[in-house]
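User: Predict the structure for this protein chain, please.
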Amino acid sequence: MIRFFRHIRQNLIMENKTSKYFKYAIGEIILVVAGILIALQVNNWNIKRIERQSEIKYLTNIKLDLQKDLVTLNEQIDVRIKKQNVTKSLISHINGNNIIEDLDKLAKNVFATINEERFTPNNSTYNELASSGNLSLIENDSIKQLLLDLEELYKTNIFAIEHEAFEYKEYINKSLFAYVDLDKLKTIYYEGKSVESQNINFEDFNGLLNSLEYKNGLAISNIISKGFIPMYEKIQDKSTTIINIINKEIQSKND
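Assistant: Here is the predicted structure, written as structure tokens:
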């Protein structure tokens, strides 16, 4: 093809058809420029297509991460409510109200206070997007803003968990280690063994339940658990909103 165009130019020059040569040269330039522009357009289209495929993949994975979180959050809220009930029951017992007559229940409640719960989000897809600089692949600004809001809630969650871990260590764990045999309580809590089989009686809990430090630890635990619930519900709401927007976004890109 190049030889063909070169042959035409040479003939025009040899025939001294200068004006026709310039017209032809301009036409050839226009043709080359048009070819370059078309090639660039095709290349840009391919890049956009690849970017949209990547965006849909990322959005799908983010949705899957959030769906897993919704299940975990439901479990965590349920755990927090149960923890509140346990701590309130023990505080009431210590105060002489609503005395727990069932020793097995008392043993299980006491052991339950040592359990620490934590919500760890499945945000690996978002972290990959942010660290790789590919967050710009997501075209919908609402999704990006909501994901940023969610990350701030995750940070708050981490701070609250660290604070709770410190309170547990200082006010609950130390008292439990000092006053009760956790190995025996563990078999009752996890293995369903009876207090009789472990030779446990109500007097074994006197030192613990008379400890002001332990009572204060229970009060703090109750307050902390109560605070986690609205935060987890807020994370649930934002996660559900993001999932709904992602569904619409993916649908619009596949249409």
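The CA atoms of residues 168 and 174 lie 8 Å apart.
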